[in-house]
Design brief:
The chain has 328 residues and is an alpha/beta fold. The chain is 23% helix and 20% strand. The radius of gyration is 18 Å and the shape is globular.
Length: 328
């Protein structure tokens, strides 16, 4: 790990520190329009969250901001990076307020279904995490990193959004917080034993192989990288929780990005679609071995409906895909 990433403060590393050509790739950490909702399902929460109080909000502007236009169009590396970094800085407070109860302060959950690392052990048995160096990518308020620290691991929480990391700083923890781009990781080769990302980075970059290759670079031989994303099949269905969300409305093979843009046509949020086969090929081409693909089933305890998520849809089609990868 490079100098400057000290516990108790946010170390900022601009992407230019590794390569100007990779300077503008980003990673927010939970899907908005086509993935994880901005409302919180009840059920399994971690330790009581403090993130529900709007502690870090800035004064609201007197000007009324027009709602962005949702469209499907091309969006390259730089445009995606600028849009998503800005979106998460603007919406970090709302996200943490609305998700605080579900996430807790120190819970490791892989997606909206509520699959918990305590049960899944996708990074390995909890007892084996003690003393491991772990990188969390798209950490947000670092709930997963905080859980890892509780198992005796030595986590580093990385996020492109400074605002998200302010929430991590407020909640507390003795591990480093690093503000940096996932496609230009500011760490030396072989710095970590494990890496993880719950709905972070991969859906929001134009070229996911840049992120995957960076993660492989900073992992030690035999290291494991586990990441979750919205299940690719969801892109073919409307984001509706009821029966209307069960009919195919678009081509699964249409890889045109989902974009929200302002009145001048500037992207303010971008999400990229990859098919399941694309994800597998990206993983293999980046030097990883895919050892498992987990599609969590909708649990009985989660009875809520919100956004495009519901027991109806969750019991019929997968919502999350979790890829378990290893570096030889």
């Amino acid at each position: 790990m490079r100098e400057g990433a000290h516990p108790g403060r946010i170390a900022a590393f601009p992407a230019e520190s590794r390569a100007a050509a990779a300077a503008n790739r980003t990673r927010p950490e939970a899907t908005r329009a086509r993935g994880a909702p901005l409302t919180t399902p009840p059920g399994r929460a971690g330790r009581k969250s403090t993130t529900r109080e709007p502690i870090i909000q800035e004064p609201e502007s007197a000007e009324t901001t027009a709602e962005p236009e949702a469209t499907r169009r091309d969006a390259g590396t730089a445009e995606s990076a600028r849009a998503n970094r800005g979106w998460w800085d603007r919406n970090a407070d709302e996200y943490q307020i609305e998700h605080g109860t579900f996430l807790g302060d120190d819970r490791f959950v892989w997606g909206p279904e509520g699959l918990d690392e305590v049960e899944a052990e996708l990074l390995g048995p909890s007892a084996g995490l003690n003393g491991k160096d772990v990188l969390e990518i798209g950490a947000g308020a670092a709930q997963c990193a905080r859980w890892l620290a509780g198992q005796g691991a030595r986590p580093v929480a990385l996020d492109v959004s400074h605002r998200q990391l302010q929430h991590a700083l407020r909640i507390g923890g003795s591990f480093p917080l690093v503000c940096a781009d996932a496609s230009a990781l500011p760490f030396a080769d072989g710095s970590f034993d494990l890496a993880c990302s719950a709905y972070g980075a991969l859906p929001f970059v134009a070229d996911p192989r840049l992120v995957l290759r960076e993660v492989r670079r900073v992992l030690r031989p035999g290291g494991r990288f586990v990441f979750s994303v919205t299940h690719p099949i969801r892109w073919a269905f409307p984001d509706e929780p009821g029966p209307e969300g069960l009919s195919v409305s678009g081509s699964y093979f249409d890889r045109t990005p989902y974009v929200e843009q302002d009145e001048e046509g500037r992207a303010v949020y971008v999400e990229h679609h990859r098919t399941l086969g694309d994800r597998v090929r990206d993983i293999v081409a980046s030097g990883f071995r895919l050892v498992d693909l987990v599609e969590p089933e909708w649990p009985v305890w989660n009875t809520s409906e919100w956004g495009g998520w519901s027991p109806l849809r969750g019991n019929l089609i997968p919502g999350t895909a979790i890829f378990v990868c290893e570096r030889d």
